[in-house]
Give the backbone structure.
Amino acid sequence: MRYSGNNIKLMVNDLMVNYTDVGPDEAPVIIFIHGYPLNKSMWDKQVDSLKDNFRVIAYDIRGHGESDAGNEAFSIDLFVADLIGLMDALRIHKVSLCGLSMGGYISLKAIESYPERFEAVVLSDTTCMADSTEAKNKRMKAVESIIQKGVAQYADASIKNFFPQELFTTSPEVISSVKAMIINTSELSLCSTLLALSSRHETCTKLPDIKVPVLILVGENDGITPPSAAIFMHENIEKSSLEIIKHAGHLSNLENPEEFNKHLKLFFNSVYTDHLNNIQGSDNSILRDLRNKLNMLLSFRSI
């Protein structure tokens, strides 16, 4: 039995996972995987944009949002196991993925390890490369800062790194929502995830093995995973397309949701053309039936 709605709880790999599940029962399934240090609510506008034609699932990665952290050491492999565990618990064999930043790392590792489980992938503001020594050192300094100065100060530093200064004036609601996501994540989960990200392995050498359609999205001003990283993935994935999101940085889906959603819908519409044609055919059939009934009603009234 399927439970639809927001903030549904389900036991997966011995921990409680919080997720959203909306859209038609028999529609193709798209799973959204959020970035660090955020939660599934970052995808609200994308879920709303796709839910009429697709079954859309967004979940909180362990230790984030309202999902339990569990007792195991965090790693990208563990996050992939949780994703597959969620799919199995929901009895879904094949899905498409959309992952941003950390969600992209998880998506790339998942399709490497379980290629038969995925129909298409969207990689947003992410990279296939492992952390450089400099990046690892930055993450370790962030861990020290969280422990010594607390989450609130880390949140302030993070949003300054994510967003250009003008966005603090033009879109204060985006800033406040992201800050709230960070503050509501525990120190332990923040630090554990930073360690997981710093120790992840590269997936670049496996890019040519990806055989499903891939859409790569990146904010034109992304300074964390820049357009050059997106271009590299595009050049090494055969069935990939690349779109650079204008007026956006690392959180492109939040900074320019209109353009992001436009590319997202075009991509999934192309992947699932047969499904959408069936919907259109069904809609046309319903309209014909309504017209016939209306014409019959009008003819009876004219007698």
